[in-house]
Design goal:
By secondary structure, the protein is mostly helical. It has eight helices and three strands. Strand 2 and strand 3 form a beta hairpin. It is rod-shaped and about 95 Å long. The C terminus is likely disordered.
Length: 172
C-alpha cells in the first residue's frame, strides 16, 4: 500500500474526517514510511498537496474530498425520505376509514339489516374484529351490545391515534 493510499484508508476508517493525530496513528501502521526522514511531515505533505483527494476542514482536521460528496448525498436522501414520509402521513389511515364507514354502512342497510351481514363478514376477515362486533350488535338489534361495541371501537381508535401508529392497515 502506498503512503497516499494509507492516508486515504486511515481517513476512511475514521469516518472520512479526522484530526491530524488520529490520521498519524492510523496511516503510519498501514504503509512503509521508513524512507522518510520525518514520517509525520510526509503525511502532512500529502494532506496539504494532494487537493484532489484531501482537504482541510479546520485547523488540524482533514477530510476526504469524497466525504463531503457523501454527506451531500446523505442530506439529499434525508430530504427525499422526509418528503415521502409527509406524503405517507397525509394518506388516511384505516382507522379513519372504519370510524367513518360504519355509520354509513348502517344507514345504507337500515331497512334490511341482513344485507349488512356480508359487510360484517368482510370486516372480520380483514381483521377488524371490533368493527365487526359493532355490526353484529346492530344486526341483532341489541342496543346495549351496540353501545358497548361502539365504545370499545372508539377506545381502540383513540389508543391507536394517541400512540401515533401510522400504518395503512391497523388492526382495530
Amino acid at each position: 500500500m502506498t503512503q497516499k493510499e494509507a492516508i486515504i484508508d486511515a481517513l476512511k476508517c475514521l469516518g472520512g474526517k479526522a484530526n491530524l493525530n488520529d490520521i498519524y496513528r492510523f496511516a503510519y501502521t498501514r504503509a512503509d514510511f521508513s524512507g522518510s526522514k520525518d514520517w509525520k511531515a510526509t503525511i502532512r505533505w500529502y494532506l496539504q498537496k494532494e487537493t484532489d483527494s484531501f482537504r482541510s476542514s479546520k485547523r488540524g482536521w482533514y477530510e476526504l474530498v469524497s466525504y463531503q460528496e457523501e454527506v451531500t448525498k446523505l442530506k439529499q436522501q434525508i430530504a427525499n425520505l422526509s418528503d415521502v414520509n409527509k406524503k405517507l402521513e397525509s394518506i388516511p389511515k384505516a382507522t379513519d376509514l372504519i370510524e367513518k364507514i360504519l355509520p354509513e354502512m348502517m344507514d345504507v342497510c337500515k331497512h334490511d339489516r341482513m344485507k349488512a351481514d356480508p359487510l360484517r363478514i368482510a370486516l372480520r376477515h380483514l381483521g377488524y374484529e371490533e368493527a365487526a362486533g359493532v355490526f353484529d350488535a346492530w344486526i341483532s338489534e341489541k342496543e346495549d351490545d351496540l353501545a358497548k361495541a361502539m365504545e370499545k371501537l372508539r377506545i381502540k381508535i383513540h389508543n391507536i391515534t394517541m400512540t401515533g401508529e401510522s400504518a395503512t392497515y391497523v388492526e382495530i
